[in-house]
Recover the amino acids of this structure.
């Protein structure tokens, strides 16, 4: 009965969802594409799709957006190594997630949008693709999707699962719905003990702690090469990178930067890379309004000596930006967005600064601070002060960078532990039966 009312609510919200897509399309036209997929209509398979085979497993991985898609990279590599002929389907909810999978995997996988969580759409999705095994990255609990998989006997795993206190409180408002969804999952692999405990409190019957697969993401060699090219374009100037910044953070950073260094008061270059590509132009306007001289990465030109801000308006180059930086602030932490992925700059060996909001990476942030790989700041003024202090302390900068690499290496292994679970389940599943 609880799921019945949930389904009614989903239907009532569908008109709003379509209006939301139209609204988002003002800045990102890709939201107008593939609408049928959001309702479970996929038509014929794409011409470049890997054809389904009854003799090989079909692994379906749901990765909502950019972060989850990147986190799935080591898992997909491990699946391909163990099952060379497998078919891999990646589902998303955002165009940026879809674009990220295109950049990472090209035509080697299939990708579609996961439908809105209505029973009929989810049944159509499962009937069309007939997966052997489902893997949901991080924490996306869709009751009708989970129920449809359970009804069809499809093993469904929640992997790299994280659940912040804030998210746990939201799910706890609907205890029966959350408990039922968690009970119907085949297995749950959490990134940390705190996440596992919150999931158990909501009703998950069995949760294992496997660690965070984002530690298994090694910096791609081609990205490091691009980083060297970017650094050559910058020259010998110190580089302070503000990566994956969210709305509102850039204004605070620019104000603090101007207040501390004034106009032309430092040789350091401030590099800003907004989290969402649809905000590139808006951030460029903020920099222009600040009076600071700016260049854009998309101009594909060397950085002039008098350029004060370099706007990283490119997709899929985050590791390259980290490789070109001397110190990096990880966005989404200065304001209450929960922090973006701080593991990436640590893996590259860049000293890391994070703000007070880290609930999306609480355990990783705590461990990075303890390891000396990161420092936490309270506000934008302190952020700029700490960044300039690190830039001026070469031995300290090197020590923090080495601590970051050691920290990232020490926590690897989650992908293999997750694969161990998958191997147990695939041993019980006959792909030809699906």
């Amino acid at each position: 009965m609880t799921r019945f009312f949930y389904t009614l609510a989903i239907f009532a919200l569908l008109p709003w969802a379509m209006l939301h897509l139209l609204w988002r399309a003002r800045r990102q036209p890709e939201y107008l594409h593939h609408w049928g997929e959001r309702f479970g209509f996929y038509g014929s398979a794409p011409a470049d799709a890997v054809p389904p085979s009854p003799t090989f497993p079909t692994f379906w991985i749901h990765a909502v957006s950019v972060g989850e898609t990147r986190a799935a990279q080591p898992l997909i590599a491990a699946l391909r190594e163990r099952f060379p002929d497998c078919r891999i389907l990646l589902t998303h909810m955002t165009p940026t997630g879809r674009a990220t999978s295109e950049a990472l995997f090209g035509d080697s996988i299939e990708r579609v949008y996961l439908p809105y969580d209505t029973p009929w759409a989810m049944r159509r999705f499962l009937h069309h693709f007939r997966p052997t095994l489902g893997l949901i990255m991080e924490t996306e609990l869709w009751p009708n999707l989970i129920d449809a998989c359970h009804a069809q006997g499809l093993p469904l795993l929640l992997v790299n699962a994280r659940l912040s206190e804030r998210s746990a409180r939201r799910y706890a408002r609907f205890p029966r719905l959350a408990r039922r969804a968690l009970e119907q999952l085949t297995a749950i692999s959490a990134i940390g003990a705190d996440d596992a405990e919150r999931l158990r409190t909501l009703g998950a019957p069995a949760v294992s702690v496997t660690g965070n697969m984002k530690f298994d993401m090694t910096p791609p060699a081609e990205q490091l090469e691009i980083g060297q090219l970017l650094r050559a374009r910058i020259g010998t100037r110190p580089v302070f990178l503000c990566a994956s910044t969210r709305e509102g953070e850039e204004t605070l950073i620019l104000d603090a930067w101007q207040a501390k260094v004034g106009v032309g008061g430092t040789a350091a270059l401030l590099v800003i890379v907004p989290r969402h590509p649809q905000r590139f132009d808006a951030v460029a306007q903020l920099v222009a309004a600040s009076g600071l001289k700016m260049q854009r990465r998309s101009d594909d030109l060397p950085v002039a000596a008098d350029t004060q801000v370099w706007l990283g308006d490119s997709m899929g180059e985050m590791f390259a930006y980290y490789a070109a930086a001397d110190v990096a602030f990880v966005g989404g932490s200065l304001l209450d967005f929960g922090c973006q992925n701080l593991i990436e700059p640590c893996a590259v060996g860049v000293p890391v600064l994070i703000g007070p909001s880290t609930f999306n990476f609480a355990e990783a942030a705590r461990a990075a601070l303890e390891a000396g790989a990161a420092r936490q700041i309270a506000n934008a003024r302190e952020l700029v002060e700490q960044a300039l202090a690190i830039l001026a302390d070469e031995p300290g900068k090197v020590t923090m960078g080495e601590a970051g690499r050691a920290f990232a290496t020490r926590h690897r292994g989650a992908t293999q532990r997750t694969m161990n679970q998958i191997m147990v389940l695939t041993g019980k599943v006959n792909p030809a039966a699906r």
In short: Confidence is low (pLDDT under 50) at residues 45-51, 430-434.
